[in-house]
Amino acid sequence: MKGEPVEAGDPERDRLDRWRRERLAADHARVPPRRERFRTLSGLPIEDLYTDDDLADLDPARDLGLPGEFPYTRGVRASMYRGRPWTIRQVAGFGQAEDTNARYRYLLAHGETGLSTDFDLPTLLGHDSDHPVFSREVGKIGVAIDTIEDAHALFADIPLDRISTSLTINASAAVLLAMYRVVGEERGIPGDALTGTIQNDILKEYTAQNEYIFPPGPSVRLVVDSMAWSAEAMPRFNPVSVSGYHIREAGATAPEELGLTIAAGLTYLEGARDRNIDPDFVAPRLSFFLDIHNDFLEEIAKFRAARRLWAGLVRDRIGCRRPESLLFRVHAQTAGVSLTAQQPLNNIARVAIQALAGVLGGVQSLHTNSLDEAYTIPSEDAIKVAVRTQQILLHESGVADVTDPLAGSFYIERRTNDLEREARALIDRIDAAGGLVAAITSGMAGQIIADSSWEQQIALESGDRTIVGVNAFQDAAEAPLPIEPFRLDPGVLERQLARLAAVKRERDAVRVDASLAEVRRAADDPGVNLMPAIEAAVRARATIGEICGTLREAWGEFRPPVVF
Amino acid sequence: MSEAHVSGTPRNRIKVVVAKPGLDGHDRGAKVIARALRDAGMEVIYTGIFQSPESIVLTVLQEDAQVLGISSLAGAHLEYTTEIIRRLREEGMGDVLVLVGGTIPTADAATLREAGVGGVFGPGTPTAQVVAFIEEHAPRIEDRVSRPWTT
Fold first, then answer.
1. Which site among B18, B20, B28 would you substitute to test the A interface, given the most A Cβ atoms closer than 10 Å to its Cβ?
2. Looking at the predicted complex, does its ipTM rise above 0.85?
3. For residue A474, what are the CA distances in angstroms to A159, A467, A470, B104?
C-alpha cells in the first residue's frame, strides 16, 4: 500500500520516479491535467498511476482467497454467475394490493426472477389506511397493507414456494414478516418453502431513511426477535437486509456507507448474543443491501471490501464459526440519487454503468432503476428498459461468464484496501462513541451523513463535479419530459377503506382484543420473543395500526436530534 | 421601523421555516436547503419530519416567519400544501412566502402556483437560486401586518 516506507534505491520506485519526472511531466507540459486534483466520488485521492508498488502488502492467498472461501473478497460462492446468475429483482408497489399484484405479473412475464415490494408510508409507519391525517398518503409510494387480507391479495396466484420475495419495510417489519408466514400457512405452503428477504433494518432509519417509530432499544430487540423466530419458522427467509443504500442516498460516502452498514450488522449480532441467542444461529440469514453509485471503479472495490471486512469481523469479533455466517450476501440497487430530472433518457446510460459495477462487484441480486424512478412510480415502458439492461449484461456482455475478473488489478485492489481501511476506521470511531445506538441518539451518525451530503452539494455547485445535463451540457430550453407522471387511481383510498371496514366488521373482535393484549404483555417483557404474539394477532385479523399502536403504547415514539 | 434595521441586524434577518409534511422521510434536500439558507445569513427553523399541516402552520405562527419552505418527495405535495396555505390564511399569515421543493411533476407545479405557492423548485436547483428567490420575494418585515404577539 502507498504510504509504506519504500527503501531508498528500490529499483521499482526509481523506475516510477523517472517515469513521473520524464514521461508524465513531459506529457503534462503539453497537455496539463484536466483537474488540479483527481478524487473519487467519495473524495479519496486518485494518483496518476497504480502499479505493483501499491500491492506490496497484498497477500493474495490471505487477502483475496478464492471465490467461496475466506475472506470472500472474490465472491460469496465458488461458481458465482456461471452457476446461478444474480436475481433480477425490481421493486414495485403502489395503490391497493391488487394493483401491485398486477405489476408483479407484468414483471414476471418480462423475465424478472424475484419479487420486491414497496409499501406506502402509512404501512411503513404502522398506521392504518383510515388514519385521520395520513390517509392522504395511502397507496402513493407503495402498496397499502392493513391486514392479512391485503397480504393475501398482494400475493394472489404468485407461487411463493418458487418465487422469492423481498419486502422493503422496517419499523413495522415484524408485522409484515408474520403476515408473509401466515399467508403461506393459510395457502398450505410450509414455512421452510418460503424464500425471500425483509429489510427489517431499523438502525439506518434513524440516520438515513427516517421511517422509524419506536426508540432504538426496543426496535433492536424487535429485530433480534424476528431473526430468532424466522430462523425456525421460515429458515430459508432472510429476516434482515442490513442496508447502506439509504445511508448513501442520504449523502454518505462509500466508506461511510460501508462502515455504518457493517456497524449495524454487528449491532444486531451482538444484540442476539446479549440475549443468549447463538450468533451462528442467526448470522447465516443476515443479508445486505448496498447502493451502486456513479464512481464505477470505486463501487466495484466497495463490494469486494465489504465481503472481506464483514467476514473478518464476524469471525474475529462476534466469534462465528459457521462459514455461512461470514458471507456478505448483497442485493444492490443503482443510485436513485444519481438520476436526473433533466434529460431523463440519460439515466438509462447511468443505470447501465452502475449495474455493470454491481455485477463486477459480485452482487447476488440487483435492482436497476427505471429512468423515471427518481420522481414517479415507474411506467411499464421504463421498467422494461431497466430489466432489459440486466438481461443485456447477463446475456450479451460476457461479464457474467467469469468470476471476479478485476482481481489483481493494481487500482481495484488498492481501492479495495482503501475502502476497507476507511470503513474500519469509522467502525472504530463508532465503537469509541459507545456503539451505533449511542452514535445515533447523540446525532453523531446523522451529522456524518449530513456533512458529506453538504460537501457533495458544494462540489456540484462550485462546478468541481460535473453532472451531465444539470451543471453541464444543459438543454437551452427545458424539453417536455418524455415521461408521464404516475397518477394514482383516486378510487384506491375509498376501496381500501371499504376493505378495512369489512375486515373489521367480519372478524372476531374478542379474539383480536385478546391477541393485542398478548402483544402488549410480550412487549413489556424483554425476555420474551414478540413474534409469536404478533403472528397470532395477524392471524386474528388485527390491523397493522392496531399492532403497532399497541407497541407505541408500550414503548413510546422516538424523535432523534434534528441535525443539518 | 428605524433606519438601523435596514441591513444586517438580527431584527432584519429573513426567517424561514423549512418543513416536511406527512410521513415522507426524504430529508436530504430539506437539510441542504436549510444549511444553504443559514449560510446565506437567514434564520432557519427546520421542523424535522412527520409534521402535520397544523403543526407546520403553528411553527410559522410562533416563529413569525416570512418564508415557509415545504419539502415533498412522496407524492402528497398537493394535499398537504393546499391545506397548509388554507390554514395560513385562516391565521392571518397569508403573506408568508410559501415555496415547495422536491419531486413535483410539471403539471402539479402549476396547480401549486395557482393555489398560492410563490415558487416551486425541482431536483438539481442550485441553492443560490433559492437564496436569491427568497431575498427578492420574501415579504419585508416593515410591510407585514402588525401582530400583537410579536415585538
1. B28
2. no
3. 47, 10, 6, 20
